[in-house]
Design brief:
The protein folds into 2 domains: 195 residues, Growth Hormone, Chain: A (Up-down Bundle); 230 residues, MFS general substrate transporter like domains (Growth Hormone, Chain: A), CATH 1.20.1250.20. The protein has 24 helices and 2 strands. A two-stranded antiparallel ribbon has the order 1-2. It starts with 8 loop residues before the first helix and ends with a strand. It holds the Pfam family Sugar_tr.
Length: 505
Amino acid sequence: MPQATTAPPSATSGTVTTRFRLALLWILFSATNYGYGISELNALQPILTCHSRDSTITDLVLPIATGCIPLTESQFGLVTSLFTLGGLVSSFLISPVSKSLGWGRKTCITWSSIAGIAGGSVLGLSSGIGGLGMGRFFQGLGSGIGVVMVPIFLNEISPVALKGNIGVLNQFSIVLGIFVAQAIGASWLGSDGKYWRAVPLTSGLVSLLQLVATYSVGLESPGWLEGEGKAVVGSGTVARDRADEIRSMLWSAKEVQSWKEGRSSGGARTDEERQGLLAGDSEYEDTNSTANRSSERHQVGLMGLFKDPEVKPGAILIVLTQLGQQLSGINAVLYYSVGILGSILPALAGSIGILITVINIIMTFPPIYLIDEHRVGRKSLMVGSAIVMSVASALLGAGIVYGYKMISASCMILMVAGFSFGLGPIPFVILPELVPSRAVSTATSLGLTLNWTANFLVGSAFLPVKNMLASYDQNHTGGAVFYIFSLTNLITAIVVARMYRYNPE
């Protein structure tokens, strides 16, 4: 296989087709909706926690015309967290379900959009906690499927030279969704008691557009056809022919020819395109290609991830990087930035919250260029990101504890910037690269299940831990909670530095 490097923007147009770009947008709708779901209720809290108005028959018959919904603070928190619960359930189940039912990547994305339509519609047309919770849960189900499948799908349809560039677009789409949700929520639509429902209904509309696009630009993953899809198609030869046909639709003729030549010479493996290897596994060589091809037909289950010597090192790193991403403290900042800064910078807390979202978007662009191993590379971006977040977390904690206002605000922004150029996008980019294709779905499902679990734990435990630690600092701020994130980020940097090594096959 030719060395996998990311191509400069000028080369991209000659590598892929218009159909590839359309398919890319279709896939990334799932990532955008995930980001949208994270923050869509933030600006709506004043409306959804209105206590002065009781539900009436009008609320039930014409819910689109109603104003606020009487929810307590705890009920609002429950509704918000059900999104994470839905994502946890679907991210864990999508791999075994798709295997048992023979679903390809396209079918999984279709179900993601269907769940998004149901969730956005139910949430947008509800007048009580039951409907709101159900809508959020359905949205989470769709997002969980997307979080698992989008990185795999992007990796499997992209030419080798563009895998890094295209993979980063997943994280960019997520932060774009976060920004759009906050922008709509902060507009007159989100602040008006009669029109706030447009915020969740927008999510349903995006999912509807994605579902419609499935029947026009949607297609199956060539990587899935040559791997798990062999059993569904019924023949390895037929699967390969279909995969080549799809590549011909997505890639330029020159790129397809180069791919076929590499495959014929043994330099490329259609169902195992790993570029990320582990430092501790560098001596491994494929000395028995016949046996290896035979083993690819058997998909790896959950327990097999840690029994198969070829899969185990990559599976461990997937688990550690996915946990490291959420335990970095990024969601504590994104969920509670206004509350954290409200006590020390009340006049600027809201503006800083918006600035954090903008920085989050801007800083997703550098990795598209820097991820090239001839520039900075995956490992350096992750290690550098974790170190920046570790230092920023420590300074943020000290700034809050000792009342250094501008240091606190600056370090909170620095945390988001540090996350966005490394720990945000790169764990998703390397996820399908670390294990063989036969283990990708299971390893992805496990890693992202832990990602969702850590997400939920950080979001739900942050304030209680912060309040507990407040009794130990002189100003009772609880800023010491960020020292914990400083430590976890340092551990992540050490783990990646020691375990991960880029070595294209």
